[in-house]
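The following record pairs a protein chain with its ligand, zinc ion.
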Amino acid sequence: MPLLLQQIMYMERRMLLKRMALLGLAAAIPFKQTLSAAFFKSSKRPFHRFNLGELELTVITDGHISLSPVQPHFPNGNEAQEKELLRKSFRPTEAVDLGMNILLIKKGTELILLDTGTGGSFGPDSGWLLASLSDAGMEPAQITAIVISHAHPDHIGGLLSATGAFVFPNATIHMSAVEHAFWMAPQQDFSKSKFQDKKLLETFATAIRKVLTTIQPKLHLFQNNSILFNCLRMQLAPGHTPGHTITYVFSGKEEMVHIADLMHSDVLLFPHPEWGFDGDTDIQLAATTRKQVLAILAQTQTKVFGYHLPWPGIGHVRTQGEGYEWIAETYAFPG
Ligand SMILES: [Zn+2]
């Protein structure tokens, strides 16, 4: 890549970080920051490994992002009700801490990564993907494919280094054609989003377009319901972004669905999927999709993996009154 472009990309990352920090988006009262950043610098990061049919699945962490205060992030909800729900669940009421769970799938000699984290563009509490990968015994050159759920910066941020170089040199990159078309258009329609700073969304869009342009030589676009690598079925779940995709991971009779950014809180959005998320591009469509997918997941009792749900993001969905609840999987021992 020409040096100038590298420099522009680097500068834009710095600028984005600064602007996000100013808005309280990046380092929004990261109440665990001091502890976690310091702790994880000197410690091995844990990973969670299990089998799904013939596949070996590993969950690693890219860190976490703290949303604080809770409003305006779940904008269709009532602040008092949201705080009450958090209190009843023994959670802090001043912030929702988003996990950054990254799924790795080993299928024979193929090693497939689902999303790539922030790449450090959201501050020191995330961007841990490479360190986590190393602690799980793998290195970037071993990754053969990367599947992107949608093109937000906390999912594509790890594709390129700060200087614009490919972090995973041997990997093909796969993304929804709908998602790609949305971000590559000269302008994006953010009129149905409840994100307060529309100017910042435009800055995001420019940065996203630059990344998508850079990765073009390695990029493969998929259509709705495509099967990739004979173990992934890609299903459009629009609203968070137009091409936001959930991934059915399957092997033999076993199945798990990676719901990507369908849910940004286990406590708030399962009982109240209509409360929405301010990061949704079309908040109404996202709520409709969220309700439809939750109904199916509860009915089919499918195992679920959530990118932003509490570590390691694995569980099931159950109906509860008029809404749903998240039943996290628990384990007798670490690993
Ligand atoms: Zn996300």
